[in-house]
Amino acid sequence: MNSLIYIEPSEDVIDPMTKQIVSKIRKIPEELRRPIKGIVIGNHLDGKESQFHGLIDDLIMVEAPSGSESNTEVISKILTDIVSENSPGILFLGFTFLGMEVGPAVGWRLNIPVITNCVGLDWIGSQAYLKRAILGGKLVVSFKVDLSRGGVISVQKGAWKDIEISNENRGVVSVKRLPWRKTWANEKTEVVGISEESWEGEEDITKAELLVSVGRGMGDPENLPIVKELTEKLGGMISCSRPVVDLGWLPANRQVGISGRTVSPVIYLALGISGQANHVAGMDASRIIIAVNKDPSAPIFNVANYGVVDDILQFVPELLEQIKQNS
Amino acid sequence: MMRIAVCCKGVPVETKPESVYILNGDIYFRDTNFYINEFDAYALETAIALKNSSGAETVALTVGPLRVQEVLYFALAKGIDHVLRIDGETSFPELIASGLISALIEIKPQIILAGVQSEDWMGGEVGIYISQALNIGLAYAVIEICELNDTHVRIKKEVGGGRKAEVILKLPAVLCVQSGIQPLRYVSAMKRQKVRKTPIKLAGKLNLEDAKKSISGMIAYMAEEILLPSKEGYAEMITGDRSEKVAKVLEIINHTL
């Protein structure tokens, strides 16, 4: 079967998810996976094709009118056709907002299995076994999946390690340009604009060396002042997970995760954060992650370097007290 | 009159391994109560907001056994006009969608709302499958409904990295709403008690075998095993009394910075 990867537009030349996915595809028995084909929609990688040497075998570059490359209706149609024309093919995507929307749409159209939020992929002979997290990441389910007719697999960010591209034996990627087809045009949806939040003039959490990040475990906005005092004493900045923003306790510019900012401080102190994949995707590159949570099965402990099982409402005052004693 | 349907899911309170089991390749829960999926609660709030602004009629529907009726009582207490339950039990989103699609074809809503994901399955496929089956527009991770008229809806949705897309969709359309799109209002115990007298209409039964046949290509997978997450890369746990744990955390911070 063909291995197809949808390469999302990214700030990096190559979307980091692509490298993670390739690392896993390489472990599929070669007689099963055939060449690895990347799919790019739009012209954002024009002139950068050589970056894919040694990573993938073929690069399918789809011509798309300006603006249509960000329309998920259009992307779904294009990917459906490409997977169909490379049948049987497995379409790999990141479990990003784009991948969450487009992957199941392609699977439904082609009547092939869809496994979202995938964290594991193993083969025993020609049989695939995929793992996905359930119940807030506290459990994992292993599925036996028949991919003989193809399939769609969206991969949780960070679940698989990046591949290192060796300078030796770097294969040359073969580029195929796919002209625009009228059948791909949008019919039901029109993207009228893309906007980016401006954080100008505000404290930039992506620049912090130390982040004190709070989650719903804070319990009440009345507990925010003591967390702010701790942040100040440690010389860091305050950040948070999505529920804290949803509840209006902190503004959106403090949010870490796929909906918010991606951060990589030296120390990430996660207080009362459960560790949902959407949050972890924005902070897993931190150098040292220290998590404090009263739930010993909280998934945050799966990514943290150090863990403390405790109630943050008791832990933070004690932490402040010891800082004051030591100063 | 505009009609808005909200797809709701009951999710288990218990998350312990012993409360989850596999039967015939599907995943089930035992010894637990169920509550409304938090993301669907935001979809309910969105429906109520649209009802208040446009006078739309609202319908909430769910697929599940009798015990998930709690979800529909919650919807009624929030102010949803009508509720429907499709009898059936499965964790597979394709099959849940199949159950909802038959009812939605009858209801003929202009807008179908669903939460962006479910807390138990941790995916958001159901709304997407519904849009594909009904061949209507779709927007995922909707954070704002800017404008609604008889033919179109204009929304803003998240596209990742703090970026947002503004999209106009022809009606009917499916909107999978993000948490935080509306504030979650408190529903008093008295109001919850009052709606329990309302009979819940049964809108058919999800026949799993028939549904599996119609999407047999998609149901080419089955659950084999429930596992705890890998301990590879698991945190080094700091133990001791609170004072000792705090001292160790401070030592790590001071040593690293």
Written description of the protein model:
The complex is a heterodimer of chains A (327) and B (257). Chain A has 327 residues and is of the alpha/beta class. Chain A has eight helices and 15 strands. Chain A has helices spanning 16-25, 30-33, 72-85, 97-110, 224-234, 242-246, 277-280, 312-326; strands at 2-6, 36-41, 58-62, 89-94, 114-124, 127-134, 139-145, 151-155, 174-178, 189-196, 210-214, 237-240, 267-271, 288-293, 306-309. Chain A has a nine-stranded mixed beta sheet, with helices on both faces. Chain A has a five-stranded parallel beta sheet with strand order 12-11-13-14-15. In chain A, a hairpin with a 4-residue loop joins strand 6 (127-134) and strand 7 (139-145). The termini of chain A are far apart. Chain B has a single domain, classed as Rossmann fold (3-Layer(aba) Sandwich), CATH 3.40.50.620. In chain B, the strands form three sheets. Chain B has a nine-stranded mixed beta sheet with strand order 11-10-9-12-8-1-6-7-13, with helices on both faces. In chain B, helix 2 crosses helix 5 and helix 3 (93-107) crosses helix 4. Chain B is α/β, with parallel strands linked by helices. Chain B is built from seven helices and 15 strands. The radius of gyration of chain B is 21 Å and the shape is globular. The chains are: A alpha/beta (327), B alpha/beta (257).
